Amino acid sequence: MNEIEMAKVRKAAERADAGGYRRGGLSAFRLKVIGAVFMALSVASVTLVPLIFGVPTADNMTSLTVAVVCEIASWCAVPIYAWLLFDGWRHTRNRWRYWAQLFVAASVAGLPYDKIMTGQWFDARTHNPMWGLVFAYIVLVAVDWIGRKYAGAARWTLTALVIVAGVLWNLLLRIGVSQQVMYSGVITLAFVMVFYFLNQHENTMMFTAGLLGAVSCITPGIGVAFLHYRNGRLGYARPWTKWVFYALYPAMLLAGALLV
């Protein structure tokens, strides 16, 4: 084997190590399953836990502890879904259709989410975490467009303005606010931007994302650990499998809303 061939082999190995073609690891399907389990814990913390253990109060520490643990654990899903959003954006054949799918799923999830969180089927004071993905996607598309059209100071000024606008959308609309400490909409946007700007530098990207997760109530950092073992494959047994995941979170919320 000559030096050129050996160089090609090394490059192929480096691409595999970067998460592109690992034999083992976690496919997109498995990551979505893991994310769905964590999201189910969030729904359970405000629906099943009160039914099983009673209303979480200072006088019912068992229920309160279980509810808090479930909710905190569910935050592991934030970086997982942020990565799936970014990865879907860069591989989809129709980016506008992809956004429309997210928009429909977030809209459908809205009513049962409001019912669970506020007791009303519609409450404009809060919005479910899927809207964080919708807004993060808009910012991602805008930032990428700016990067292709502008350079230098103009690019980074416009990019900063778009990101700040995305943060404000999430804050003003209270996207995915949990326990008044986790602003999942803002954190989702932050993760997506980390993945966008650093995706060509695997180690730096994972380190930065892990640090962001650690300072974002710790458990999102655990979610980043799952991403380290991704293998870059879809892993779907059937083409229609992806549609199940779009419907899964709204279905969880609807089931939970019928219980409260």
Automatic annotation (TrEMBL):
InterPro entries: TraX. The chain crosses the membrane at residues 31-53, 65-86, 128-146, 158-175, 181-198, 205-228, 240-259. Pfam families: TraX. Signal peptide: none annotated. Keywords: Membrane, Transmembrane, Transmembrane helix. This is Putative ABC transport system membrane protein. It comes from Bifidobacterium biavatii DSM 23969.
